[in-house]
Amino acid sequence: SIPLGFFGGIGGASKSGILIKGSNFLEALNHVKYVVFDKTGTLTKGVFNVTNIVPKGELTAEQLLEYAALAESYSNHPIAQSISAAYGKEVNKEVIGKYEEIAGHGIKIEVDGKAILAGNKKLMTKEAISFVEEAAIGTMVHLAIDRQYAGYIVISDEVKEDASKAIAGLKALGIKKTVMLTGDAKKVGEAVGQKLGLTEVHAELLPHEKVEQVEQLDSRKQKDEKLVFVGDGINDTPVLARADIGIAMGGLGSDAAIEAADVVIMTDEPSKIVTAVKIAKRTRKIVW
Ligand code: ADP
Ligand code: MG
């Protein structure tokens, strides 16, 4: 039978906006030593602002932004939303033909019969388009039109204030490693890692490589140590499922992510993980 105290713990957690899908996960939270975070939308706000538009051809900045907005018009990635917001107008979807979104890369789309690519350096490399590898501080979205490089848009995200609180709280609880995994560029990842004082950052990862990183960390654990993965559910469902405790966060998460997660945080505050571990420890004292 399940000790009654566990229900108190789960109930208490739910009042704090933390849904724990079973007493085994509440117990496991006592043994967390590795906390692995996704970046975008988890440690950062996931609300990007366009900070620079740099055409490298005949297009004006406004035209480059319009192509980007068209390319992103079917995507629900935070990058897509920020580009649409910067464009600020409805795009004419009638001109859009074939469309494909490639996880961790970007978009391939037909606009007015032209082949448009919008994405990161992995997409450009994969499609053999030479591009400007400038040291912009921010996430670069490169564009190519009919295989001609057309320029790039720089967008910047901000670290959540609550993320610093989360990392400090985890350290105070004796967590061994606070790790961030991201599909974004190394420069961007390292800046966030430094700002938050994370112990490890792994960047430029595809969704399946995030799973591999979790597996590697997992193999470093000692017996009885648990690994948590925290993500916003965009492209990280496989990692959520692979971790000892998968935590889905915020309103952005998909149904699939909520399904794959063991714990769901209803707000967008990563510091709720600290709350969850504290509730687990308190519950344990009552049960044993
Ligand atoms: P993160 O790991 O930071 O949550 P993702 O795995 O969702 O990020 O995406 C990784 C990278 O892939 C992004 O930083 C971006 O460069 C590129 N990318 C993904 N989706 C898009 C998109 N819709 N448009 C442009 N670039 C994209
Ligand atoms: Mg993500």
TrEMBL record:
Highest taxon of source: Bacteria
Subcellular localization, as worded in the UniProt entry: Cell membrane
Family as reported in the entry's similarity comment: Belongs to the cation transport ATPase (P-type) (TC 3.A.3) family. Type IB subfamily.
Name by which UniProt lists this protein: Cd2+/Zn2+-exporting ATPase
Species annotation: Evansella caseinilytica
